[in-house]
Amino acid sequence: MSDKLHLGVIIGSTREGRWAPAPANWIAGVAAEHGGFDVDLIDLLDADLPQHLAEHDMWSTDSDRSAPVAALADRLDRADAFVVVSGEYNMSIPASLKHAIDFYMNEWAAKPVALVTYGGKLSGGQNAAQHLRQIFPELRTLTIRNSISFPRFYQHFDERGEFTKFDENGPAAKTLLDELHWWGRALANARAATPMPSPY
């Protein structure tokens, strides 16, 4: 068995002018260099999920899903672990991220999630992180202990417009990815050994 896990790095914001792709590309690059992951960078803007959750797209039905919903389902299903990158919008997560989470159930189950957040306040998106820690257990998904946050991110750009805080967060990123890999391997082995029982 390869020690590499399939890692989905999810860009949680679709808002015009969003900063989310910058930390997402950074953590995806660190994960690729880590050696324990094959990385799939998932941009919810490109996923283009329908705004209306039609009955044929619901995870609880046996209908054929629409093409965008099925395509993202395949990418989430392949992943053994996730890093979710989220800004903090009005003390919570972007609607686009909640929308994407709610479209799926089994694709998230029995997998670990690490959180990378940012915000314009000193909390660095921790309100968004806490909401995700409340949401994911309902999907039988584990949020790991370690996380990374970027408080008042807009204050940390140099004269070339480059963000200056990524390098100093390199050690924290390695610790986060080491923990994520441990949980990802443990849960992948568990899923292979015994199907997860239905919660219903």
Automatic annotation (TrEMBL):
Pfam families: FMN_red (PF03358). SUPFAM superfamilies: Flavoproteins (SSF52218). One of its GO terms (cellular component) is cytosol. GO terms for molecular function: FMN binding; oxidoreductase activity. It comes from the Bacteria. InterPro entries: Flavoprotein-like_sf (IPR029039), FMN_Rdtase-like_dom (IPR005025), NAD(P)H-dep_reductase (IPR050712). Residues 7-152 form the NADPH-dependent FMN reductase-like domain. This is NAD(P)H-dependent FMN reductase.
